[in-house]
Every structure is written in structure tokens, then in C-alpha cells.
Amino acid sequence: LFMMDLFRVEVENHTQSLESGLVDGERDPSPERMEPLMRAAHSTKGAARIVGLAGAVGLAHAMEDVLEASRKGTLALKPGHIDLLLRANDIFASLIPVAPEEIPSRLAARAGEMEEVSRLLRESMTAPAGEPLAASPPPSASPAPVTASTPAAAPSTPQRPAPPSAPQKETSARE
Questions:
Q1: Cα distances (angstroms) measured from residue 118 to each of 39, 133, 158
Q2: pTM of the predicted protein model
Q3: Cα dihedral sign for 3, 9, 15, 18?
Q4: Which H helix or E strand runs over 119?
Q5: CA 12 vs CA 45, 94, 152: distances in Å
Q6: Distances from the Cα of 70 to the Cα of 26, 41, 127, 135, angstroms
Q7: Residue among 109, 115, 108 nearest 53 (CA)
Q8: What would the pLDDT profile of 125-160 be if each residue is shown by its tens digit?
Q9: How far is Cα 9 from Cα 139, in angstroms, rounded to an integer?
Q10: For residues 96 and 12, is the Cβ–Cβ distance under 8 A?
């Protein structure tokens, strides 16, 4: 439990700097601004690895990769990147008020969401420049994980696909 508490403290320190840095980085994504953010993600990854939280390691690693690519100048951060990074950071920030012994189960409950955000972050590094990064993939790919972690978000996800499918059915019935 002592190590898990240290992990929680690490997360608290790094999520605060990541949040403010990402908001600032949206206005100025210069390499100098990305360096401390990349290091914060790297430290979070290391802390998660020490306590054996594989999902958290993967999420922090995906964050680190995006931030490192931006720092090196091989990726121009777009609002979609920032949104995904903030979404990942929010997952870590949600652990701050949690008792150390509850952290593994809290992360397990959000495993699907963490995997989805990790995947989207990795894919965002190769997405075409004008393509929205966070807008379309999450609703189709994450209803179950979102339902498990945030019930309020679940009703809106199924409602979005329903209206487009109803007109399609009517159209096919007419033909």
C-alpha cells in the first residue's frame, strides 16, 4: 500500500502540471513547452510500472509518445491531440481522491477506456492533418467502457447512431 500511495502522489503532481501545460501547449506547442510534459508522462509511466499497473503504463506511454513526437517536431499538435491527452490525464487525475488500496480496481473498471484512449493517441500520430482525432472513433468503439465508468455519458452514445439508421431503413424500405 505504501508504494501505491507513492504512485498516487506522483500522479497528483504530474497531472496538475500536465493539465496546465497542455492548455498552454494548445496555444504554443513549442518544443520547450513539450519537454516538461513529456517528462511528466514518462515519470507517470515509470511510477505505474513500479506498482505493476500495466494499463496505466500503456496509457502514460502513449501520452509520452505523442508529447515526444511534438517535442521533436515530427508531430504538430492539433486540438484533437490536446483533447486526447487531456482525456488521458483526466483518467489519471481521477485516482487522486482514491484510497491507495482501491487504485487497482478503479483502473480495472476503466481498462477499456484506457485502452481506447491509448489506441487513439497512437493512431493520432499517423492521422491525416485535417482528420478529427477524438470526434468520431470514441462513440463507436467505447460504449461499454464509458458505461462502466461514466453512466451519464452512455445514453448520448447510443442515441447518436439511432437517428442516422432510422432514415436509412426508411430509404431502403422505399426502394
A1: 17, 12, 22
A2: 0.73
A3: negative
A4: helix 111-124
A5: 13, 9, 25
A6: 11, 13, 14, 21
A7: 108
A8: 987 654 545 443 433 333 333 333 333 333 333 333
A9: 32
A10: yes
